Amino acid sequence: MILVTGGAGYVGSVLVQKLLDRGQQIRIFDRFYFGEKSISSFSNKVDIVRGDVRSFPENVLGEVETIIYLAGLSNDPTAEFNPEANYQINTEASVKIAKLAKEKGIKRFIFASSCSIYDFLNSKDSVKTEDDFVDPVLPYSLSKYKAENKLKELADDNFCVVILRKGTVFGYSPRMRFDLVVNTMVKDAFSKKTINVVDEGLHWRPLVDVENAAEAYCVCVEANSDLVNRQVFNISLDNFQVKDIATTIQTTLDKNFGVKTKIEFIKASGKIRSYRVSNDKARKVLKFEAKMSIPQSVEKIASHIKNGDISDFQNPIYYNIDWMKPIFEREGV
C-alpha cells in the first residue's frame, strides 16, 4: 500500500493514476480543499481518508509500505500570505508523519521538494547541482529546505528517505492550475490574446511537465533503496529563459490552434529569481529523463480548452492563493 498525502492535488491526481496503472494499492490522505473532482475517475479504486496533515491520525498508516508526501502549500504567494500554516504543513507535518512511519516500520518516505530552494543564488547563471550550497530566504522554499534536512536525519538502513526537487511544473491535470508560468501563458493567450513577460524575460526557470513529475515519483517508489536513500534529485526537463517559453507557446498555439497572440514585456515589481539546475544525477542514478516538451504539453492544455473542459479562466479554483485565502480567513489557519 502506498499512502499519497495531497493525492487529489495538481501533481497528486496525476501520480495516483500512474501508480494504479502500475498495479499499486493506493490510499489518499487529503483535506480536499479543491474538492474531489480531480480523483473522480479512480475514486472507487483507492482508499480515501479526508484529513489535515497537521492532525494526522496514526491509523492511516495501517498496511502502508511507502509514503509520498505531496501535501503542502505549493507556491510563494500562498506561503507568504500564511507563513505559519506554510511551515506547519510543509515542514512540521512532513517530519511528524515521517517519524510515525519510521516507528511503525514503514520502509520508504518520498518528499516533494522544489528547485525554488535555489532562490537567488544563480546570479551568474551557474547550473546548480544537488550538492551545491543553498540558502533559501522565501517562506515556501525555506520550509521545503528545512523539511529536507530534518527528513534526511531520520533516514537509516531500514528507513529510506528520498527527496525530489522539482522544477516549475506545467501541463494539464484533473486538478488544473493556471498560476504556473507555462499554464498562465497558455491561459492568457486564449483569454487575452497576449502573453506577458516580465522585463526582458532573460531569467531562467527549470521546468517539468506534470506527467513527467509523476513518473519521477513512480521511479523512486520502485528504485533500490541503496541507490536512493538520503538522496536529493533535481527533476526537470531543462532550463529555459522566460522569453523563450513565451515564444514557444506563441508559435505552438498559432501553428496548431490558430490562436494569434502578442508578447508584451512588462516591468518587474521586485527582484526576479533566476536559477538553473542540473539533471545529471537523476539521469545517472534513477535512469530518469523528462521527455514531455513544452509544445506537447501546451497542445494538451489547449485541446482541453478547445473541447470545453476548461472555460471559466477567472474561477479562483485554478489559482492557489485566490482559492486558499478566503479559506484561511474563514478557518483562522
How do the strands line up in the largest sheet? 3-2-1-4-5-7-11
Task: Write down the CATH topology of the domain at 2-169 and 207-237 and 272-292.
Answer: Rossmann fold
Total count of helical runs of at least 4 residues: 11
Number of strands: 14
* Secondary structure category: alpha/beta
Level-2 CATH architecture of the domain at 2-169 and 207-237 and 272-292 = 3-Layer(aba) Sandwich
Name of the CATH superfamily of the domain at 2-169 and 207-237 and 272-292:
NAD(P)-binding Rossmann-like Domain
Distance, first to last CA: 31 Å
Word description of this protein:
The chain is α/β, with parallel strands linked by helices and 333 residues long. It has a domain at 2-169 and 207-237 and 272-292: NAD(P)-binding Rossmann-like Domain (Rossmann fold). Helix content is 39%, strand content 19%. The chain contains 11 helices and 14 strands. The strands form 4 sheets. A 7-stranded parallel β-sheet has the order 3-2-1-4-5-7-11, sandwiched between helices. A 3-stranded mixed β-sheet has the order 8-10-12. Strands 6-14 form a two-stranded parallel ribbon. Helix 8 (242-257) crosses helix 10 (294-306). It starts with a strand and ends with a helix. The model has no long low-confidence stretch (mean pLDDT 92).
